[in-house]
Design brief:
CATH class of the largest domain: Mainly Beta
Number of helices: 5
Radius of gyration: 44 Å
Strand content: 5-15%
CATH architecture of the largest domain: Roll
Low-confidence stretches: 12-32
């Protein structure tokens, strides 16, 4: 073993302190004598890069980003408040169209009530009530409301509410609706009221 190799072994063993003055990155041609010192050099290089970056005008960029964020948040908050106000207004007036459409029916009922007080012909009163009822059904139908057809149909808890069960009049009506106590209604194919029915057993 020559003298140079002995010196190298001593340095590797820690017998002699090695001071690396070169701050350039380690090249493939350099011999890595002490990994801790190489790590220290890399950390120093990272520190230098970080300090150089800190000297750049990052504060201005951050301020610009912060201003954009604040404006965006303000716009979103305004949108949220406006939407909430519109939703509240829509909720308050959501039934307005339906109610206005039913006002003529209310007028007809008032006229019918006045005529009933003086009516002597029960048939005329009955005809008047039927006309008012028909008018109301037409208005509801135009708004998407329709009555369920239940009698003779299989009992379905998605549409029907069973009030009671009775012996089925025929074998075919077992498990089917034999009578309707209260009509059910759809609004644009959505159930808005279940039909109260009597089911055959």
């Amino acid at each position: 073993m020559n003298e140079e190799s002995k010196q190298e072994n001593k340095r590797a063993a820690g017998d002699e302190q090695v001071i690396l003055e070169d701050v350039n990155p380690v090249s493939n041609e350099e011999n890595i004598e002490n990994p801790d010192e190489i790590k220290s050099r890399i950390e120093e290089d990272i520190k230098d890069v970080t300090e150089n970056a800190a000297e750049k005008d990052w504060a201005a960029d951050f301020k610009m980003i912060e201003d954009k964020y604040i404006r965006l948040y303000a716009e979103f908050d305004n949108f949220r408040r406006r939407t909430a106000a519109e939703r509240l207004e829509l909720f308050k007036t959501s039934n307005q169209e339906m109610l206005v459409a039913l006002l003529p029916v209310l007028d007809d009922f008032e006229r019918a009530m006045k005529s009933i007080e003086q009516a002597k012909d029960i048939q005329a009163v009955k005809l008047g009530v039927e006309l008012v009822s028909s008018k109301m059904r037409n208005i509801l139908s135009q708004k998407g409301m329709k009555v369920m057809e239940c009698i003779g149909k299989d009992f379905d808890s998605e549409f029907h509410e069973a009030i009671t069960n009775i012996p089925a009049p025929t074998e075919e009506l077992k498990g089917k609706v034999v009578d309707v106590v209260e009509n059910g209604y759809f609004l644009n194919d959505k159930v808005v009221r279940f039909a109260k029915v009597v089911v055959g057993e």
